[in-house]
């Protein structure tokens, strides 16, 4: 009987245990289900959030992209504008430089013309000095030739004939210095186109050896081709040395 009772108790205990275990299982199962649902919800929420984030990011990217496109378009326009400005400036600079160059060329052309004139003027200079190399005897009325040429700028003086021919028109100055020989009284005139203009006189001292000198100067207005020479107007002999004493000079002023 007792054994039966104990057995019954044990059985009851076991049944209770089983029942309790069953309950616990159900409870656990329910908790598990609940947790599972929660996980699913959270996963969904996470997915939603993820989607939102993605969407936002995409929109942000889209916005950023649009902004970038607009910036690029603005910069391209600005660049085009700047290019135009730079080109415009460059053109203006070139124009200015061109004007400056034209002015420089004009100035240089003028300077060149001025210099050419100076060079031409200097090449148009006329001046000569010629002398006799020693004492000489010439007849009255003869042209005195001065064979020793000291200077003959412009080539107007002819040492072979003693005649000066004006290479160009202008105001000329002529000078003669005639040294009479011993007691010979000598008159030398400056002749322009055949006409005597001025004359020198060297007085021979009436028989004594005076070797007197006579000089004279004439400023003459010559046309190109006019001739001027020194003429023995009266007397015959003149005196000179290696360094000429009796001389004839002329120059254009
Ligand atoms: C997830 O989004 C769907 C529709 O977009 C919505 O019906 C649901 O309630 C959201 N769930 C959670 C947990 O946010
Ligand atoms: C582009 O230019 C326009 C007009 O000048 C301006 O309103 C806009 O803000 C600019 N956009 C950007 C992105 O610089
Ligand atoms: C470009 O030039 C145009 C007209 O020339 C002007 O309307 C515009 O504002 C300029 N844009 C920029 C970015 O300089
Ligand atoms: C040209 O000459 C004028 C007058 O002499 C002067 O004022 C000007 O500066 C010169 N121009 C140049 C480019 O040399
Ligand atoms: C050229 O000569 C003229 C007058 O003869 C003068 O006015 C001018 O300044 C000169 N110019 C130059 C560049 O020498």
UniProtKB/TrEMBL annotation:
Keyword Ligase listed: no
Signal peptide range in chain numbering: 1-17
Top-rank taxon, per record: Eukaryota
Keywords: Secreted, Signal
Residue ranges of every copy of the C1q domain listed in the record: 121-253
Keyword Secreted recorded: yes
Chief place where the protein resides: secreted
Name recorded for this polypeptide: C1q domain-containing protein
Organism from which the protein derives: Magallana gigas (Pacific oyster)
């Amino acid at each position: 009987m007792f054994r039966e009772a104990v057995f019954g108790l044990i059985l009851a205990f076991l049944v209770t245990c089983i029942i309790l275990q069953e309950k616990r299982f159900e409870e656990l199962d329910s908790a598990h289900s609940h947790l599972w649902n929660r996980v699913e919800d959270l996963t969904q929420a996470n997915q939603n959030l993820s989607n939102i984030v993605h969407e936002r990011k995409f929109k942000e990217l889209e916005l950023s992209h649009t902004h970038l496109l607009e910036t690029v378009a603005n910069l391209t326009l600005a660049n085009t504008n700047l290019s135009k400005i730079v080109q415009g400036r460059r053109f203006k600079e070139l124009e200015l430089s061109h004007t400056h160059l034209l002015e420089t060329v004009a100035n240089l052309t003028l300077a060149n013309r001025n210099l050419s004139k100076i060079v031409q003027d200097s090449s148009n200079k006329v001046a000569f000095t010629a002398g006799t190399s020693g004492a000489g005897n010439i007849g009255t009325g003869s042209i005195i030739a001065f064979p020793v040429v000291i200077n003959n700028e412009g080539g107007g003086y002819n040492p072979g004939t003693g005649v000066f021919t004006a290479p160009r028109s202008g105001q000329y100055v002529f000078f003669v210095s005639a040294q009479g020989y011993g007691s010979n009284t000598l008159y030398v005139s400056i002749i322009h186109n055949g006409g005597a203009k001025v004359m020198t006189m060297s007085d021979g001292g009436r028989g004594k050896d005076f070797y007197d000198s006579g000089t004279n100067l004439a400023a003459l207005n010559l046309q190109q081709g006019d001739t001027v020479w020194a003429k023995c107007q009266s007397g015959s002999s003149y005196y000179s040395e290696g360094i000429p004493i009796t001389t004839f000079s002329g120059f254009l002023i």
